[in-house]
């Protein structure tokens, strides 16, 4: 693990230095390393990274309560390499940080340990890219220091969001004081 820290720090620095619209190069020898992956195009359109489960850091999970017993959804969140470390050091996500939230439906059943809800089916992803420079002022998915997009499970390269103010921001208003992110649910962000 200690050997990887300098490599991850270098990767993090290269992501942050190039800003939004960057190409992410994965470390040599990484299973997912296959050249460069463009996450944001010149117009500010985003795509879900193919390798986020293996190369991003797990931040935490949220259980969304159902109307009856059990959970109706699970939200699992990952951060791009170096983003959590930078947040722990400064209390802010640096420009270029990428957060990917998987939204999955659940199945609930009785087990020997009690009533258990587990992930069942991927519904889609919510992705945010930190951007304090307002890099894409003409793109309605960019603003308030972030790029915001929802992707249905069947297409991780084309968002169904049209405007972050109407499609995304409403859910994040209670987290405005923490840069629009519900950091309380992410143990990996605590010092």
Q: Which secondary structure elements does this structure contain, and how are they paired or packed?
A:
Elements: H1 4-18, E1 23-25, E2 36-38, H2 52-55, E3 57-65, E4 71-79, H3 83-90, E5 98-111, E6 114-130, E7 142-143, E8 146-152, H4 164-167, H5 169-172
Antiparallel strand pairs: 1-2, 3-4, 4-5, 5-6, 6-8, 7-8
Any key phrases for this structure?
disordered N terminus, 5 helices, globular, alpha+beta, 191 residues
Describe it.
- There is one protein chain.
- This protein is an alpha+beta fold.
- The chain contains 5 helices and 8 strands, in the order αββαββαββββαα.
- The radius of gyration is 17 Å and the shape is globular.
Given the structure, what is the number of helices? Answer: 5
Shape: globular
Low-confidence stretches: 1-35
**Helix-strand sequence:** HEEHEEHEEEEHH
Percentage of residues in helical conformation: 10-25%
Gyration radius from CA atoms, angstroms: 17 Å
Mean pLDDT: 84
Give me the secondary-structure category: alpha+beta
Give a count of the beta strands, DSSP E runs of length 2 or more.
8
Spatial gap, N to C terminus: 18 Å
For the sheet with most strands, the description reads: 6 strands, antiparallel
Order of strands in the sheet with most strands: 3-4-5-6-8-7
- Percentage of residues in strands: 25-35%
């Amino acid at each position: 693990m200690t050997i990887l820290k300098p490599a991850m720090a270098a990767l993090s620095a290269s992501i942050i230095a190039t800003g939004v619209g960057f190409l992410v190069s994965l470390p040599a020898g990484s299973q997912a390393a296959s050249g460069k992956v463009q996450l944001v195009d010149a117009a500010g359109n985003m795509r879900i990274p193919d390798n986020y489960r293996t190369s991003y850091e797990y931040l935490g999970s949220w259980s969304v309560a159902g109307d009856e017993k059990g959970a109706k959804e699970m939200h699992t969140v990952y951060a791009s390499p170096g983003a959590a470390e930078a947040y722990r050091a400064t209390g802010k996500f640096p420009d270029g940080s990428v957060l990917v939230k998987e939204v999955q439906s659940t199945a609930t059943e009785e087990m020997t340990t009690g009533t258990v809800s587990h992930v069942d089916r991927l519904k889609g992803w919510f992705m945010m890219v930190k951007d304090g420079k307002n890099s894409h002022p003409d793109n309605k998915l960019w603003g308030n220091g972030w790029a915001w997009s929802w992707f249905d499970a069947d297409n991780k390269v084309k968002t169904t969001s049209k405007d972050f103010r109407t499609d995304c921001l409403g859910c994040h208003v209670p987290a405005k004081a923490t840069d629009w992110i519900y950091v309380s649910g992410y143990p990996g962000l605590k010092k």
